């Protein structure tokens, strides 16, 4: 594809987001050298060029193919994410496999593989498969063959689509190969991939976390490294899967992740420090509504502690983790103080009428409103409350915005 596939980054030199992206973009460029050309355009000095391609926000990334603006780049913004995303942009939408050796080499990959097996090159099912590959190539790897004999070692003797999960994630709790034999459309193939590609316990990364978190998700974090230590990485994963297999069909999905990739998130969202857990995994649950739970008991090798954690979760006995300031011991003023931990009990009380101000202590507009708010609270009936957004987590069902002029 080089130099037909080209990813320019459009950015002004003073943009903070651009400065954050720049080192990641440079590292990705080094890894992609010879396959995909990455370049930068500074809009402060080349405004005419930026305007010609409709650039209005920064940083903007666009994919060019054969000298033409092909599509916006909407992939990850880490070096690894850019590298993996752009690697999938090179070459054909689906690789043609001619021999069994080609098939084996293709599926022996770090990522999952989707392989269509067809009886000839002119069928409508192959055409539909190739259309789907063109739309989904940014997320998944596709290959196809027009020789049914290529898949006979897998018990396949008719046209179908094979989903090979990554060999590094092979385990005794589920099949490594899933077969799709239903009526083939872009939509049906997309649903099949979505429902089966991750399996019982996928490896969550910075690149796929958003796709996994559309459901309630339990994650075990530990020193996971599938590039250098597959066996060690699967040691704890197998113990999670053994327990997970006992709780199937209850609406909770499971994953494992490298805790080093999520340190800041774990500290901010779950209150877990870098030393928590030691060499043992620590486990969290994040629901699609944003509720968060942490397993406080040490992860035991027999899985019993994880089972107790799940029993408490499904029984509704777990207390949600909420990042909060302490609940005030005295709260007798006309304007009461609310913190995240007391929010539901106070503000969502069905027997009270409440007017609540969400504010930041450093906001000049909030400071200007404060005496007016206090005077009003002293003269009218509804309860008045203050809620500071510093160092707290808002309940996930509430969304508030503070619009301040930074000047």
Automatic annotation (TrEMBL):
<dbReference type="GO" id="GO:0009986">
    <property type="term" value="C:cell surface"/>
</dbReference>
<dbReference type="InterPro" id="IPR036249">
    <property type="entry name" value="Thioredoxin-like_sf"/>
</dbReference>
<dbReference type="GO" id="GO:0005783">
    <property type="term" value="C:endoplasmic reticulum"/>
</dbReference>
<dbReference type="InterPro" id="IPR013766">
    <property type="entry name" value="Thioredoxin_domain"/>
</dbReference>
<dbReference type="GO" id="GO:0003756">
    <property type="term" value="F:protein disulfide isomerase activity"/>
</dbReference>
<dbReference type="GO" id="GO:0034976">
    <property type="term" value="P:response to endoplasmic reticulum stress"/>
</dbReference>
<dbReference type="GO" id="GO:0006457">
    <property type="term" value="P:protein folding"/>
</dbReference>
<protein>
    <recommendedName>
        <fullName>Thioredoxin domain-containing protein</fullName>
    </recommendedName>
</protein>
<dbReference type="Pfam" id="PF13848">
    <property type="entry name" value="Thioredoxin_6"/>
</dbReference>
<dbReference type="InterPro" id="IPR041868">
    <property type="entry name" value="PDIA3_PDI_b"/>
</dbReference>
<feature type="domain" description="Thioredoxin">
    <location>
        <begin position="1"/>
        <end position="91"/>
    </location>
</feature>
<dbReference type="Pfam" id="PF00085">
    <property type="entry name" value="Thioredoxin"/>
</dbReference>
<comment type="similarity">
    <text>Belongs to the protein disulfide isomerase family.</text>
</comment>
